[in-house]
Each structure stands twice: as structure tokens, then as C-alpha cells.
Amino acid sequence: MKQNMREWLQEMKGSPVKKAMPILSFPAVSLLGVSVREMISDSALQAEGMKRIADRVDSAAAVSLMDLSVEAECFGSQIVVSEDEVPTVKGSIVSTVEEVDALKVPPVGAGRTGIYIEAVRRAKEEITDRPVFAGMIGPYSLAGRLADVTEIMLYCYDEPEMVESLLEKATEFLIAYGRAYKEAGADGILLAEPLAGLLSPALEEEFSAPYVKRIVSALQDDNFLVIYHNCGNTTIQAIDSILSTGAAAYHFGNAIDMAEMMEHIPADTVAMGNVDPAGQFRNGTVESIREETLSLLKTCGGHPNFVISSGCDIPPLSKWENIDAFFAAVKEFYQNGGAGENV
Q1: pLDDT tens per residue across span 263-312
Q2: Which pTM does this prediction carry?
Q3: 3-class DSSP assignment, residue 50
Q4: Residue spans per domain, the chain
Q5: Which secondary-structure segment (H or E) carries 309?
Q6: Which DSSP helix (H) or strand (E) runs through 238?
Q7: 8, 260, 288, 309 — which has fewest CB within 10 A?
């Protein structure tokens, strides 16, 4: 029987003791003793990695690989794969109206999407004590990887109709991809739209929010949530437009002041963030991540709708001692009645 995810979210908001929900998946490589290259190509390894993480940390939910190259690869983009870094997209595959018009929307299952869907299906069978969310790119961020992340910003001014045509194709694919995750048993998706964080609020409202809203409308229901992620530095200025997407919850990066952001979030809406993934999880120390985590909780933990998380995807080679220290600090804060110890 499917879990009512709206109730899950309300229970999370209403609980005086909250569990963290970081974007934590790629560091499974060190638990499994495999490379990133191996894990992105194997659904069994991905599912096992998610299970290992769930067994180790007391998170609010499990999250699949946040690999923002997999969807672009389906469309024909070239990707760069390494042993210990998240894959990236190289170059562009469209730069003219004619190329966008000729671009085919790939079937779900093309490229590595079938592997990622199967990984979530397997993970749902193994992880039974918390929801499982699938990672998926957002529409503008996908379009940017197809047209080049810098060039698309110029196209928004010079060729807006071309960008809109590309966004239509990206959105069509992402709705189908999200439905496949839903059919595989996922409890929701974490929709990553980081490239929209580089847009002005006006451009974000035109080229991102309407397409995100269509994805949310097509996928979200009582048993399947969309959590919107944007780690850009313009999210506070664009927050009204971002909230108009109707996502069930929102996740923000460490480029913004989370305390300031919480002042803009309605009391009945959950917002998550934003411990520095590179600066703390990857390159910090046990002491520094504890300090930053407790500081953020002291600043934002008074908001019942705040859930602490990483600011973005935690890098593959992040130290598990730092990840463990993050969860220990969250536990410490709530065990002390939300006061924690002096930092």
C-alpha cells in the first residue's frame, strides 16, 4: 500500500524533533568500494548504495543518485565520466531553431534512464522504513545542458521562441520520466533546477517556473511529491515565482541566507537547506560541520517548517566522518530541546 506522502510531509512539519534530509547518494561509492563510473552504470549497485546509506544514517528519506547528466545524455549529449566525480555534460547539441525543431524527444529507458528507474524500484524493495525519492533534473537546467549552460542565457534574450521550443521538449520528456519513477514505486522526485538560479527573477518566471509547474501538475498527488531544488543565488528574489510552481516542498543551496529565505516561506510549506556540501561535507572537519549544522539549526530551527539538509548534492568523495558528524549534530540539537550546546 502506498504511503500518503502529504501526511508524511505534514507529520515532518509538525514533529518537534526533525530528521535531516540531505541529498546523500554518491558518497555510497566509498561504502561499496566502487567508482562513480561503476555505480552510474549499475542499478544493483545504486540500490545497494541507497540501502547502505539508509542503514547508516537516520535520514527522513532516501534519495537516488542526483546525476544531472543522465537526461541530457538521452537526448544525445556527450558526457564526461570519471572515477570519483559526478558526470558532467560536454558541449551542446542544439544552437539553432532548426536544430531544436529536429531534436527528437527520446523514449524513457534510453541511455541510462532505465538503469536509474530500475535502481529506484530495487531500492523501494529494500528500504521500507522511510520514503524513497528519485533525483531528476528540472526543465530549464536540462535545456541548458542541451544548448550550453552559458549560451542559453543569451538565447533567452535573442531567441526566446527557440528556448521555449526546447523547454517544451525537455518538459515532455521529464513528465514521462517522472511517471516512470512513479510507476517504479518512488514516493516522489527531487527536481533539481539549479541553472534557473542564474536567471534574473523575470527570466526565471518566464523560462523555468511555468514548465516546473506543468511537471508538478502532471506528477504530484497524495502519494507522490515533488520537492523543488535550486541552489542558485537569486532564489530569494525569485521566491514568489518559485512558490507558484506548487511543489510540495522546496530545497535551497548554501549560496543564500537560509534564515532570510525562511521569512519568505509560508508557514504551511516545508523548506530545506543548506549546509555547504563542498566546504563542509567534502572539505570540512568533524568540528567545523558540527558547528555549521548547529548554527544553522539555531538560526532556522525555530521555524516548524524548516528541515535541515545539505545545500546541494553531497560530493562522492565526502568524508563519512563528516556526514556522521552532521547527523550527530542534528540529533544533539533536538535532544537538547532545540537548544544544542554552545557553539
Answers
A1: 999 999 999 999 999 999 999 999 999 999 999 999 999 999 999 999 99
A2: 0.96
A3: helix
A4: 5-335
A5: strand 306-310
A6: none
A7: 260
